[in-house]
Amino acid sequence: MTPAEPSPAAPRAWWRDAVVYQVYPRSFADGDGDGTGDLAGLRARLPYVAELGADALWITPWYRSPMADGGYDVADHRSVDPLFGTLEEAELLIGEARDLGLRVILDVVPNHLSREHPLFRAALAAPPGSPERRLFHFRPGRGEDGAEPPNNWRSEFGGPAWTRTTDADGRPGEWYLHLFSPGQPDVNWDHPAVREEFTSVLRFWFDRGVAGIRVDSANLLAKDADLPDLVAPTGPGRPAGTHPYVDREDVHAVYRSWRRVADSYGDGCHAEGSHPAGSPSGSRRPAAPRPGGSFPGDRILLGELWIEDGDRLARYLRPDELHTAFTFALLKSPWTRAGIRAAVDGALTLAARTGAPASWVLGNHDVTRTVTRYGRRDTSFDFATVTAGVPTDPVLGTRRARAAALLTLALPGSVHLYQGEELGLPEVEDLPPAVRRDPVYLRSGGADPGRDGCRVPLPWSGDAPPYGFTRPGRDTWLPQPDDWADRTVAAQERDPGSVLRLYRRAIRLRRTLPGLRDGAFAWLTAADGTPEDVLAFRREDVVCAVNFSARPAPLPAGHTVLLSSEPETAGGPLPPHAAAWLRPAARAPQADRRQPPRGER
Q1: For residue 379, what are the CA distances in angstroms to 335, 344, 386, 402?
Q2: How would you write 524-560 as a 3-class SS string?
Q3: Regarding predicted confidence, which is higher, 273 or 260?
Q4: How far is residue 514's CA from residue 184's CA, in Å, rounded to a whole number?
Q5: pLDDT per position as a tens digit, 397-426
Q6: CA–CA distance, 112 with 183 (Å, rounded to integer)
Q7: Among residues 485, 421, 474, which one has the least CA distance to residue 38?
């Protein structure tokens, strides 16, 4: 047993096999009728998430922000932006979600703050070399009159990673570092005040009943103190740990300290809203009382780590650091038998090595939607190759996305489902330039379409925009397509063959079938009768088979279909681009049996 595994006598930690539903609040549901999603809309729609069968919500930043990067430019980690609501509403939401059996995971953005954060405003107002500026990365420029950036680093969003300031007398001043947009200055993690600030933020939200923290850009925090030029090679071939700002050794001390904070909230260790004697609360005021009690123990840290090297990634998942990290290998892989097999093998090898479960993800708020991606000739994903105008086949993409849903939900580990994936929503690729907000699009001059297309507000009901997202007649903050009437929640609830109904059945079976909860994983091969174009694996007495070809494939003899991504599977071969869950015929339950109460799952 690895150190990270629970003891046989201990209850299974909720996060090891949870279905986590990701909410981008600006686009989930609008409660006040202004065309922008908010906490009132999310609170009203929480039963929808519970009915889907999710165990937890991951909510992207709701903090006070000028929205230079969709809320990831945080001006105050301890308050809610008025665009979304109030801190009191956030506290109520956490309690209401808990009453429905849903834990809440929040984003924390530790690499950078907003230009409007009080700490950065104070730094801009202070002179060079001041204590206020040492919380960030200010440097004089190079060249004549300091007119060139301090080094050659490039922003993740395009252009230089440096912006020059203007001094109080109007003259050009120092430059500050921002690995993302100019509205997101990087903080200096070598400074103890920065570490204390973020420890305080963790406690602030853990005190309010938040069950987990998703750590944004988790491998970018630490910087080489000399801020040297980035020299080749910058990717594969560079010695591990030598990049000036990616995956540096210093970052692990941060997560060890955060893990100690999270672990201090374990069962019996820590009353809600209080701290062990002598520890700072970091809260502006005590957490408000919440109905329904609280979930016991297990505050978790979930890392966003785009790291290819498994040895390097494993270091973040040591028993005293992050609990788990997103498994991006599946998202990045082409939809091919060999590609998916390799992605799953790599992830499960890492899980066995570290004791941290795989955390499967097919899409999120930064990535081209699955239906669109899987309808293209190149079905892989890489930020460096995202371009506009790539043809896609939405029918083929939908079939493959349905199959991918059954694949991921049958794998061991947790699953993270981005809002709208359960509706089979495509990327909205024809947004007019005037409505686009993403700095990726703006800083690339439109060469990169950016991420607005996967952030279009959800369709809930009706035959035309705004599809129940906001009040009738109100424009949504990003425009919805005119052809989404059959993709609304209401329409799909009436359609037994819809993507929504498929997800609901799959998540229900995932919870009720012992094989999919705790069953050992094993690949099936040609020796087991698996056709060459089919990828199949067993979890005890449940088999998941995925047909990657354009022709039907025979199913294993003596098995009954529990659930298929395509309705024509029942009693026949596995259709092209489809997946099915199978079980020995004598033991197969009815796949459409009634859903048990949440407390019995």
Answers
A1: 6, 16, 12, 15
A2: ECHHHCCCCCEEEEEECCEEEEEECCCCCECCCCCEE
A3: 260
A4: 46
A5: 999 999 999 999 999 999 999 999 999 999
A6: 9
A7: 474
Instruction: Round to whole Å and give the CA distance between 198 and 68.
Output: 21
Per-residue pLDDT tens over the stretch 303-355:
999 999 999 999 999 999 999 999 999 999 999 999 999 999 999 999 999 99
Number of H helices, E strands in the chain: 14, 18
Lookup: tokens for 215: 């750590």
Gap between the Cα atoms of 252 and 247, Å rounded: 9
Closest CA to 83 of 95, 96, 67, 106: 67
Ranges 5-19, 373-387, 570-584: which has the least confidence: 5-19
User: What does the CA dihedral 387, 388, 390, 391 come to, rounded to 10 degrees?
Assistant: 160
Residue 466: cis peptide before it, omega within 30 degrees of 0: yes
What pLDDT, on a 0 to 100 scale, did the predictor assign at position 385?
93
pLDDT above 70 for 49: yes
**What's the one-letter identity of residue 122?**
A
With a CB cutoff of 8 Å and minimum separation 6, the contacts of 24 are 37, 60, 70, 365, 418, 419, 455
Rounded CA separation 544/588 (Å): 14
Based on C-alpha coordinates, what's the Rg of the chain?
24
- Are 165 and 146 in contact by the 8 Å Cβ rule? The answer is no
β partners of residue 418: 22
Per-residue pLDDT at 528 = 83
Q: Please report the pLDDT score of residue 271 as a whole number.
A: 34
Residues in the chain: 601
* 3-state class (DSSP) for residue 40: helix
Q: How far apart are CA 112 and CA 99, in angstroms?
A: 34
Q: Are 35 and 477 in contact (CB under 8 A)?
A: yes
Separation CA 296–CA 301 (nearest Å): 16
Torsion of CA 110, 132, 261, 89, to 10 degrees: -70
Four-CA torsion 392, 329, 322, 242, nearest 10 degrees: -110
Nearest to 103 by CA among 140, 157, 61, 49: 49
Q: Which amino acid is at 270?
A: H
| End-to-end Cα, the chain, rounded Å | 26
Give pTM, 2 decimals. 0.92
Secondary structure in 3-state letters for 269-327? CCCCCCCCCCCCCCCCCCCCCCCCCCCCCCCEEEECCCCCCHHHHHHHCCCCCCCEECE
Interval 73-123: pLDDT, tens: 999 999 999 999 999 999 999 999 999 999 999 999 999 999 999 999 999
- Which residue, chain included where needed, has tokens 């059959």? 486
Token pair, residue 216, equals 């944004």
Alpha-carbon distance of 492 to 486, in angstroms, equals 7
Q: How many C-beta neighbours within 10 Å does residue 539 have?
A: 21
